[in-house]
Hints:
41% of the residues lie in helices and 14% in strands. The protein has helices at 16-24, 37-46, 57-60, 72-85, 103-116, 129-140, 156-159, 169-185, 197-206, 227-230, 252-265; strands at residues 29-33, 50-53, 90-94, 121-125, 145-150, 189-193, 211-214, 222-225. The structure holds 5,10-methenyl-6,7,8-trihydrofolic acid, 3-methyl-2-oxobutanoic acid and magnesium ion (MG).
Amino acid sequence: MYVQNANLPDRKPVTVPGLRAMKAQGQRITMLTAYDASFAWQLEAAGIDVALVGDSLGMVVQGHASTLPVTLDQMVYHTAAVARGLSATLLVADLPFMADRDVAHVLAAGARLVGEAGAAMVKIEGAAAHVLEGIAALTARAMPVCAHLGLTPQSVHRFGGFRIQGREQAAADQLVTDALAVQAAGAQLLVMEGVPVELGRRVTAAVEIPVIGIGAGPHCDGQVLVLHDMLGVTPGKRPKFSKDFLAGRDSVAAAIRAYADDVRSGAFPAPEHCFN
Ligand SMILES: Nc1nc(=O)c2c([nH]1)NC[C@@H]1CN(c3ccc(C(=O)N[C@@H](CCC(=O)O)C(=O)O)cc3)CN21
Ligand SMILES: CC(C)C(=O)C(=O)O
Ligand SMILES: [Mg+2]
């Protein structure tokens, strides 16, 4: 913790093996995005388990229409800022678009996000052959990997928009196969985004690693939201799966605590935040 004069809450550090134990014990995992030290500290103080420096910063911080313009330098800058606001919260950073172009780039990006900026884990989208290779290469160098499947925003042009994935049987079966493949490659956490409730349930049951859902239904081992969505400050339309937790509350701290409570109790996501 770098922030001066901070009143540190007494928390046990969240670790990668600790998340696996939470899945085994049926304790739901809470995760939110953060992009700067001040909001990172709000997550820390509220007892959120995992902070994600998402490339969604390209949309909610920079104002772009997609995550594609975000650069590795920008991810390193934001990850380092978030790291200074955290102590016990596990820090995950997204690999930006095209940082997965080959294993050398994946490792160079991982080294910057983990070694220079202070992430404990790096997140990489998809399960293509070159991505599986990247997951294995990072894992072999002791940089734990969070996989990301389903509505992977870096594939927005392939999908033709931010569309729910895995609605057809063949696509759903392929997503289960992909989840097993990223786990076999070494991934220790999996974000499932924008899939029907039943597929979120299937994937969560199929893998041993914890599955964190966003628009993937209530059966995942944990939930993640974009911070700006859950504070109701996203410019324009929020995704249907998000919820404004600041509405009716009087502080950012209260909103984040309510989110954590609702994820842990299973009250969030409700049916109106889910896809069938
Ligand atoms: N503010 C924000 N929140 C996010 O959750 C988020 C980002 N930005 N940027 C990166 C990606 C993009 N995401 C998005 C963005 C929009 C929808 C969306 O509008 N979905 C439609 C459903 C479309 C369908 O039914 O196929 C919706 O109504 O929610 C979904 C995911 C998720 N991530
Ligand atoms: C929405 C989450 C999972 C993400 O990847 C991001 O914020 O960039
Ligand atoms: Mg992302």
